Known about the structure:
It contains five helices and no strands. By secondary structure, it is mainly α. The longest helix has about 40 residues. The N and C termini lie far apart (about 75 Å).
Amino acid sequence: xxxxxxxxxxxxxxxxxxxxxxxxxxxxxxxxxxxxxxxxxxxxxxxxxxxxxxxxxxxxxxxxxxxxxxxxxxxxxxxxxxxxxxxxxxxxxxxxxxxxxxxxxxxxxxxxxxxxxxxxxxxxxxxxxxx
Length: 131
């Protein structure tokens, strides 16, 4: 039976370090494979070759990919982040433009101009939107 006295503190510490490195290693593989498959400048054969290298020569494959494509990875990540931010900003602008009392008054004015409502109805809708 294994007790706490049979597993000294330095062994626990070493196990924690190895576990952390193991998780970090898998995270690096996930990031590299994600970057590899999101690239449009690499051919299918090039992607397959990188995958074979990452599977059969994992340390050498990861280090080589980072040396060869490290700056490209950061540029692609920055472009994706910028595109996502611009898309979110555009979405917020469209949603914010369609909300609030100004948009309600604008719709009421369009109805008034088209003849669907009278001036009295427009005034009441405008007062309700501003209230």
